[in-house]
Amino acid sequence: MVVSARIHEPVVGAGVAGGGRTRPDTEAVVAPTDALEASLAVTTGRPLGIVMLGPPGAGKGTQAARLAARYAIANVATGDLLRAQVAEGTTLGRRARGYMHRGDLVPDELVTAMVLQRLGRPDCADGFLLDGYPRTVGQAEALDAWLSERCACIVAVLHFRITEDELLRRLQRRADEQHRDDDTVETIRYRLRVFASETQPLVEHYAKRGTLLTVDAIGTTEEVTARVVTGLTGRANGHQVARARRAT
Ligand code: AP5
Q: What is the pTM of this model?
């Protein structure tokens, strides 16, 4: 089964088979050669935002770390932010803990307040990558409103397309290695259902806006990164062509 309701555009890297590897060493990621950040910032004149969208285990966090290092933009990972709150025992952490343990989404208002506060920090001024937000239509609408107030925009929503078998393999492996609280077999299956009902509709939401970039997430981490970079570079080039046409 492919964990994706509909594919709205060609999948970057579709058909490339391959094995897998564990979370990459982000220090090994080479500097960008395509000047994506510069080209998009010049094109839009506004902060550059990238959203990672995909089911649990699709590799969002793995790729987010690599892309944030590559493009030198802030990596805002909601799962990590929430786990830090839980570990610190803050009010937010105490409220979020039960939801996360069950594999449920933390209520929109809590997560949105946390994310928008984080996006207001100086390191997000030129660009940011959102790993794990938005996950509901309500969150997407809150983000849209925040962006439009600041004349900022999302340049690409990376939609990671993967089979359920591969997700289960990856999360089972992580459960054996890292013992994450919500990586039990029952909770993984529940999180996949939550993704299908709450987050999958965002594929349609962003496809309508023309920002969706579907990426084949099966293969090594390097192969997946290469597909993402190819897709983003193509998008940057498209923006530049459109801008040049408007200027003539
Ligand atoms: P990884 O990169 O960790 O995949 P992932 O897609 O980030 O998977 P997660 O399980 O972390 O995502 P999630 O969305 O369920 O959790 P999150 O922390 O955001 O890769 C998975 C494994 O595969 C790793 O071991 C990795 O090494 C390996 N791997 C990666 N790429 C590979 C490759 N190419 N080949 C082979 N192996 C590979 O959220 C947790 C909880 O927080 C949620 O359940 C929810 O309760 C709460 N929460 C977070 N965000 C929100 C929100 N916006 N709204 C409400 N609640 C939220």
A: 0.86
66 is catalytic: no
Catalytic site residue from 60, 66, 170, 235 = 60
Q: What is the pLDDT of residue 167?
A: 95
Band (126; pLDDT cuts 50, 70, 90): confident
**Is 191 an active-site residue?**
yes
Token reading at 149? 């107030």
Pocket mutation for ligand 1, best pick of 22, 26, 62 (most atoms within 8 Å of C-beta): 62
Q: Describe the strand order of the beta sheet including 153-161 as a list of residue ranges.
A: 74-77, 127-131, 48-53, 153-161, 212-216
Q: Which two tokens stand for residue 186?
A: 């029952």
Residue type, 48: L
111 lines ligand 1 (CB under 6 A): yes
**Choosing from 135, 161, 227, 235, which is the catalytic residue?**
135
Give the pLDDT confidence of 40-80 residue by residue, as tens digits.
444 455 567 999 999 999 999 999 999 999 888 899 999 99
